[in-house]
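I trust your eye. Have a critical look at both lines of this record:
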Amino acid sequence: MPTAVAAAFAAWAAGIMLAHWGLGATPLRLFIGYADIEPPLVGALEPAGIAIAAAFTLLVAGLRSLPWWLNGWAISAGGLPLVLVGSCVELADTPGNDIVSPALASVGLGIMLAGLLLAAVQAPVAVRTAIVSGFVVGLVLCPYILTVVMPPSDLPRVFIPEHFFPGTALALAAVAAATAMIRPGAVGPAADEPRTEPAGSWASVAPIGSAVVVLYAGNLVLRTGIEQPPPGVDLGFWDRPAVPDAVRYGMVVLAAAITLVLSRQAYRRGHAEPARWTVLCLALAAPLHTVTTNSLYLTAGLAWLFAAGAAAAGLGALAAIRAAGRLPWDALGAGTVAAGILVHAVGPRQGDLWTAAGSLLIVVGLCFALSAGLIRVSSAADGAPADVAGCALLGLATVLLAGQALGPLAVEVAESAGFDGTVLTVASVAGAAAALLVALSGTSHEVERASAR
């Protein structure tokens, strides 16, 4: 029990860090003129840096057997000091810190994420459930947690370094405590098995690199379709130019292309199960970034919403373990998110009850779907721990990269006051992905029945 509690708390802290730096970077850096952050033409660099750093960390972890003391938590704790250094560089206000700071933080978070996935894969089922549930709660509910210590009027300035420096130190302490508490005996047998040829680890680097190229090339093209302010005019964050319809659909196509690149490798690695995970992450990418931008559920801002999300994360993990074949749980969660976006959009006209109901559906759907999907992919795939963690990473890379492709839409949904094209687009992507998940679930069951004969 103490092991599971320590692991859940450390994973919770790691999830907050990933949401804070990784997901929060997209809305802040994609457009000109907020918090003196000058974005590159291709968009935020942090999501790509995190995904690539995590892939290379898993590659190194799979090349040779690691000593017993270098478990996933130790690797994760090794990445967070880089995030602290990145914070210090940002606060120092030295020349070049706008590149050095996010680069250091991205590499640190990539190492942290890789270590977390390794820890989950290596752990017994009970501890793995705690890790996944804690991570998902931190990732999804990060904005709600931040508002406990930060007035909502300061959002989204909570993503500026002076506010997240103490939190990074706390996350490092939590992960380090888990490293010290979780002894080799608590780690699953897979951690001590001889390493095989790390095909899965190698194979996760190439598709993630390809997806990064697709993302930034697409961003560079689509950016030309968004009207930019005249030189020298600094627009506020909420005054950025609107996204034309043609560019909006182009962003959806770009996100689908990124997912296709990553899903192709996932299918080659483990057929339908890992592919379901990447498709699920496409469905949840824009809603997750919406929550991180100016959270849909912050309008409700109630403690019961946090409790509902935490309960949904635990139930999603248990459903994937105890009743994996009964229903496509990931599709159920994605469909709930799509319904929540539509219900929430009705709120401005129908009243606070609709807003609260939409917020609840979104939070519950995100937590339930992510927990169920991550538990399933980390338990169903075969191979060395680094290879299985590589399969899980393909989905989280989809969240980061496809989420940046859909970043402008996520921002518009966050500030929407009713039904519009952007709300319908994001809800349609989630709904279509849920339908595809149902089809892939049927394929998975056919493969399982064929294998049983």
Notes: The chain has one domain: 2-452. The CA atoms of residues 57 and 111 lie 6 Å apart. The chain is about 75% helix and 0% strand. The first helix runs from residue 2 to 23.
